[in-house]
Amino acid sequence: MDIKECVLTTAAAAALWEGYWVRNIYGVTDVLESLTYDKNITFEAHAEYISKKASKRLGSLSRSRKFVNAETSLMLYKSLIVSLFDYCDTVYQVMLAKDLAHLQVLQNKACRIILKQNRFSHAADLHSTLDLPFLSQRRELHTLVMIHKILNDKAPPYLTRMVKPVEQRPAQTATRGADTFLLELPLFRTNKGQGAFSFMGPRLWNSLPQEIRKLAEQSKNIFRRAVIQWQGSHAQ
What we know:
With 236 residues, this protein is mainly alpha-helical.
């Protein structure tokens, strides 16, 4: 996560902390290079922007498919298109459901292009064949990796302040089977506020099995592999 992504992560969390929307940060719409966001921080404009950009690249991928094999086509997709979906996706929880669904539709289309399948092919089977996670799984993975960085003091202080471990009482710690390594969930006045990183991050972390949360002190790669393996066993 670069400085621009950190700023937007903080902005989204701060704007939703009490369940209200930012009226104007730099006007109705502001553009930070590849990121476009609106005054309500729904990223609707950004979703439209990356959808158009991804669609154009999918056209190129489709035209090139007749000249390359599936493996090369998948490599091209990961190199040229996946990065569009990944950029700043740790704050996409506040994005409208229809926009998130449309981004997934674009990845489904890519799978069909790579495997030369028709539009009636089931998306789950295509993703499984390509060993490609759904975009929602990638967003969860990136959020959890960011939480891991925060817990290991590898994130800026203003992100670190958003995450607080649940304090364990001595009696709870001593109890066999006690659930540990949990994070506090902040209170919000509205359901929309639960899309903030400061809420969704700890919520996703607490949903992990305890044996994975115990890897908080391990390296990022070890933790990341454990999460990916767990996601694979709970695939959509």
